[in-house]
């Protein structure tokens, strides 16, 4: 894979994706083989939004490769509170690290920041825009459980603001997947995403209920209905209640259906699903470490390059 930065899943070819997933599989089989490959490497973490899985898995990934992190820490205790611009922040931290990981609430922030640095910059989520490293671990989990060829996937929940959804939908076009999008009308895919998918030859199939398509799905990818998007609490409660999955609903699904979620979940997947063979969301979170190890190893290079 030959890129200076990773900003969006759109920039990745099928060959790029498969290269990362294959490398992740090799690392999963033999993690000791890469244990010191990035010894002495420092990864700069710049998280302007809260994060558990993404931040900790990047930190675990670089440490398992033999490197370490320099962490900007909480925004409240950084020079951002003094008015420092994002451009200046990344230019400063570039001087301390060999690569940067940026999460920011503003869509397009990662693309802008990448213009100011020479070290690799990896987008860990920019507002409602993109989350390409999440997409790579999603694809790895899908490949391990259902395969990526001839895939039929349902993507359900907040499709309007969900950056994980946008990134995954773009990446799945490289594999010719049949994609069904399930959401309330107010949270459908943005027009620009639909337009881009159409350009890639995807027929966007939109539904307001999962019931009619559940038996045909290989994967059901569930996302949180975001309470903060609703000015009316009653409207939120009514909509959210219609987009919840439990073990009883999954009785109509194929036996080998894989249920995924980028996490954190609230109550859109009931706890009784955790004990079924369908649940793959904790495995999905676990895969974040090996996939990000593979990604960092690819961007930073190794002795064999």
Could you explain the architecture of this structure?
By secondary structure, this protein is α/β, with parallel strands linked by helices. The protein folds into 2 domains: 9-130 and 286-300, Rossmann fold, CATH 3.40.50.1370; 133-284, Aspartate/ornithine carbamoyltransferase (Rossmann fold, 3-Layer(aba) Sandwich), CATH 3.40.50.1370. It is built from 9 helices and 9 strands. It has helices spanning 14-29, 53-64, 86-94, 109-114, 132-145, 163-172, 191-199, 233-241, 281-300; strands spanning 42-47, 68-71, 99-104, 121-126, 152-156, 178-182, 205-207, 219-222, 258-260. Helix 8 links the parallel strand 8 and strand 9. The mean pLDDT is 92.
Topology of this protein?
Blueprint: H1 14-29, E1 42-47, H2 53-64, E2 68-71, H3 86-94, E3 99-104, H4 109-114, E4 121-126, H5 132-145, E5 152-156, H6 163-172, E6 178-182, H7 191-199, E7 205-207, E8 219-222, H8 233-241, E9 258-260, H9 281-300
Parallel strand pairs: 1-2, 1-3, 3-4, 5-6, 5-8, 6-7, 8-9
What descriptive keywords fit this protein?
4-stranded parallel beta sheet, single chain, about 300 residues, about 35% helix, about 15% strand, Rossmann fold, 5-stranded parallel beta sheet, alpha/beta
Short description:
This protein has helices spanning 14-29, 53-64, 86-94, 109-114, 132-145, 163-172, 191-199, 233-241, 281-300, and strands spanning 42-47, 68-71, 99-104, 121-126, 152-156, 178-182, 205-207, 219-222, 258-260.
């Amino acid at each position: 894979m030959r890129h200076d930065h990773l900003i969006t899943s759109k920039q990745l070819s099928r060959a790029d994706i498969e290269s990362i997933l294959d490398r992740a599989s090799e690392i999963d089989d033999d993690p000791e083989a890469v244990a010191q490959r990035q010894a002495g490497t420092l990864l700069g973490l710049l998280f302007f939004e809260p994060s558990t899985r993404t931040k900790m898995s990047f930190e675990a990934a670089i440490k398992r490769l033999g490197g370490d992190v320099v962490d900007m820490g909480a925004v409240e205790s950084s020079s951002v509170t003094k008015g420092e611009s994002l451009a200046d922040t990344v230019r400063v931290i570039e001087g301390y690290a060999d690569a940067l990981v940026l999460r920011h609430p503003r869509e397009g922030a990662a693309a802008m920041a990448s213009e100011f640095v020479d070290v690799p910059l990896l987008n860990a989520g920019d507002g409602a825009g993109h989350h390409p490293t999440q997409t790579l671990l999603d694809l790895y989990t899908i490949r391990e459980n259902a395969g990526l060829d001839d895939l039929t996937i349902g993507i359900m929940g907040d499709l309007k603001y969900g950056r994980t959804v946008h990134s995954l939908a773009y990446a799945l076009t490289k594999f010719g997947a049949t994609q069904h999008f399930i959401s309330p009308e107010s949270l459908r895919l943005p027009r620009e995403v639909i337009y881009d998918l159409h350009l890639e030859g995807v027929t966007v199939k939109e539904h307001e209920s999962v019931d009619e398509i559940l038996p045909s799905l290989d994967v059901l990818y569930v996302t949180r209905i975001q309470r903060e998007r609703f000015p009316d609490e009653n409207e939120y409660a009514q909509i959210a209640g219609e987009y919840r999955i439990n073990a009883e609903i999954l009785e109509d699904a194929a036996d080998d259906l894989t249920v995924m979620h980028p996490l954190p979940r609230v109550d859109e997947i009931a706890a009784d699903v955790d004990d079924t063979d369908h649940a793959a969301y904790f495995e999905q979170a676990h895969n974040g470490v090996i996939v990000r190890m593979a990604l960092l190893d690819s961007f930073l290079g190794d002795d064999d390059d």
